[in-house]
Specification:
Elements: E1 6-11, H1 17-25, E2 28-35, H2 38-50, H3 57-60, E3 61-63, H4 69-74, E4 76-78, E5 82-84, H5 87-91, E6 98-101, H6 110-115, H7 129-139, E7 143-149, H8 162-172, E8 175-176, E9 185-187, E10 198-206, H9 220-238, H10 244-248, E11 256-263, E12 266-270, H11 288-303, H12 311-322, H13 367-373, H14 386-395, H15 399-416
Parallel strand pairs: 1-2, 1-6, 2-3, 6-7
Antiparallel strand pairs: 4-5, 7-10, 8-10, 9-10, 11-12
Helix pairs in contact: 1-15, 9-15
Length: 430
C-alpha cells in the first residue's frame, strides 16, 4: 500500500457501493466495513477478496448491530452474529483518517413515510445516526462522509427536524459541517450516472484539525465551502451524461419462452442465460398477464403513441388489468435515451416501475441491469437469493458516484495536507 493512502471505516456498508468507489479512486484503504445483514456482508467480503485482494476480508467485514457500539468497538460473542474481537483490535495502531457511510434511509424516505401508517415516526432507524457519531467520537477521524436520502431534510419524527438533531450531534462530537444541508443535495445523473437519484452528501471536518493553506478568515469552514461550491460543481461539469441505452443495451437479450421453464427449484418465464463475466443476469418470473402489459407499454413508447404516459392513464390501466386501485401508478418503462428513475430497495418486491425498454423482451430489469444502472462493474458479483440482491443494489450508493466523492475529497486532502503525517493523530477514547 502506498504511503499516502488514507484509511477508511465504512459504516452501514451494505454491499459496498461507497467502499468500491473509494477504493477505485486509489487514494484510500479500507480498514473495516460494518453491516448487519448477512448477504450484503458476504457480497462485500467477496468483493474485497477478488477485486481488492484483501487477504483478511472475512475479518474486515464485521456483521453486527452498530447500535451495540461498545461491543462493536471492543469485541463481542453473540448467538446471531458470532464472535469478533472488535474494531479496536482489528485496526490496531493504524490511524482512521475518514469514516464513510450513511444509516438506512427507509425512515427518512418520502415513499416509506407515505406507506407507513405512522409516517415512520416510531421507526428506530430515525436515530441510527447516533451510532455513526459514537464511532466518530471514538476514532476521531479528520473527515467523514455521511450519505442519505433527500427525505431526511423534511423528517421530524418527534416534531423537531431531524437535520437539526444531526447537525447538533456533529457539532457536539467536534465536527464542522455545511450550514444548510439543502446545499449538500446532489443528483447522481449530473455526475455521469445513468440514473436520477438525489442524495444528501455531508462532508464533516474535525474542528481541532490543523491543515496547511487554510484561509485564516474562513478557517476550516472554507474547506467545506470549497468542496461544495468549487470541487463538486467542477466534477459535475467534467462528467458526460449517460443513458439507459449506454448502461444496459449491450447485455444479452432475454426473450419470453412459450412454456414455463422449471429448473433447480426455480421457474422462468424468460430464457435463462449464462454469460461469461456477467453475473446475476437472470430474469425474474413474469405471468402472461404482466408480460402482456409490459409489451403494451413498451410498444406504446416505441411507436410514439404515448397513450400510457400520464399518471392517470397508468393508474387506470392498473385498475383495468388487476381490478385493484392504487394511489400511485404501478408501471414505468425505462426510456432508452434518458436516465433511469431511481433504483430503489423496493425493487426486490416487484419490477413494475422498472420495465425493460425493449417491448419484445416484455420483462422487468434483471439484477445485473439494476447493478449497471448503479454503475457496479460486471465483475462485482452479488450473493444470496435474487430478492436479496435487488434489495442490496437498491440500497447502495452508485459505485461511480462514490468514486466522484472520493476524488473530490482527495483534492481537498492534496491541497490542505502534505502527506498523511500532517493529519493530527488524536488518539482514541478509552
Amino acid at each position: 500500500m502506498a504511503k499516502n493512502k488514507y484509511n477508511t471505516i465504512d459504516l452501514f456498508a451494505g454491499c459496498g457501493g461507497l467502499m468500491d468507489g473509494f477504493m477505485q479512486e486509489g487514494a484510500y484503504n479500507t480498514l473495516a466495513c460494518v453491516e448487519w445483514e448477512s448477504f450484503p456482508c458476504q457480497t462485500l467480503a467477496k468483493r474485497l477478496k477478488t477485486r481488492w485482494k484483501h487477504k483478511n476480508a472475512d475479518e474486515e467485514v464485521i456483521r453486527f448491530d452498530i447500535q451495540r457500539t461498545e461491543e462493536l468497538i471492543n469485541g463481542f460473542d453473540d448467538a446471531e452474529y458470532g464472535k469478533n474481537p472488535g474494531l479496536n483490535k482489528l485496526i490496531g495502531n493504524k490511524k482512521v483518517d475518514i469514516v464513510i457511510g450513511g444509516p438506512p434511509c427507509q425512515a427518512y424516505s418520502l415513499a416509506g413515510r407515505i406507506r407507513d401508517p405512522h409516517g415512520m415516526k416510531e421507526d428506530y432507524r430515525n436515530y441510527l445516526f447516533e451510532s455513526y457519531i459514537r464511532i466518530l467520537e471514538h476514532f476521531k477521524p479528520s473527515f467523514f462522509i455521511f450519505e442519505n436520502v433527500v427525505g431526511m431534510l423534511s423528517a421530524a419524527p418527534d416534531g423537531t427536524p431531524i437535520v437539526d438533531k444531526i447537525r447538533k450531534a456533529f457539532d457536539d462530537a467536534g465536527y464542522l459541517v455545511i450550514d444548510n444541508f439543502k446545499n449538500a443535495v446532489f443528483d447522481v445523473a449530473d455526475f455521469g450516472i445513468p440514473q436520477h437519484r438525489k442524495r444528501v452528501i455531508i462532508l464533516g471536518v474535525r474542528k481541532d484539525s490543523v491543515f496547511k493553506n487554510v484561509n485564516e478568515e474562513g478557517g476550516i469552514s472554507s474547506i467545506i465551502n470549497e468542496f461544495y461550491s468549487e470541487i463538486m460543481p467542477k466534477l459535475k461539469n467534467e462528467s458526460k451524461p449517460r443513458t439507459v441505452r449506454d448502461a444496459i443495451s449491450d447485455l444479452p437479450v432475454l426473450m419470453p419462452t412459450k412454456d414455463v421453464i422449471r429448473t433447480n427449484g426455480h421457474k422462468y418465464s424468460h430464457a435463462p442465460i449464462e454469460s461469461v463475466g456477467v453475473f446475476n443476469h437472470n430474469p425474474r418470473f413474469h405471468s402472461e398477464r404482466d408480460q402482456k402489459v409490459f409489451r403494451l407499454l413498451g410498444e406504446d413508447l416505441e411507436s410514439g403513441r404515448k397513450e400510457y404516459v400520464s399518471i392517470d392513464a397508468l393508474k387506470d390501466l392498473y385498475t383495468k388489468v388487476t381490478g385493484k386501485k392504487s394511489n400511485i401508478h404501478k408501471y414505468y418503462v425505462l426510456r432508452w435515451d434518458e436516465q433511469s428513475n431511481t433504483i430503489p430497495a423496493h425493487l426486490y418486491k416487484d419490477g413494475m416501475r422498472h420495465i425493460h425498454p425493449d417491448p419484445k423482451q416484455a420483462r422487468s430489469i434483471t439484477v445485473r441491469e439494476a447493478a449497471r444502472l448503479q454503475t457496479f462493474a460486471d465483475d462485482f458479483e452479488f450473493l444470496g437469493p435474487t430478492m436479496a440482491q435487488y434489495k442490496m443494489i437498491g440500497n447502495a450508493v452508485p459505485s461511480d458516484f462514490a468514486k466522484v466523492i472520493a476524488k473530490g475529497l482527495h483534492e481537498l486532502l492534496n491541497k490542505y495536507i502534505c502527506n498523511k503525517s500532517h493529519i493530527k493523530s488524536y488518539g482514541r477514547n478509552k
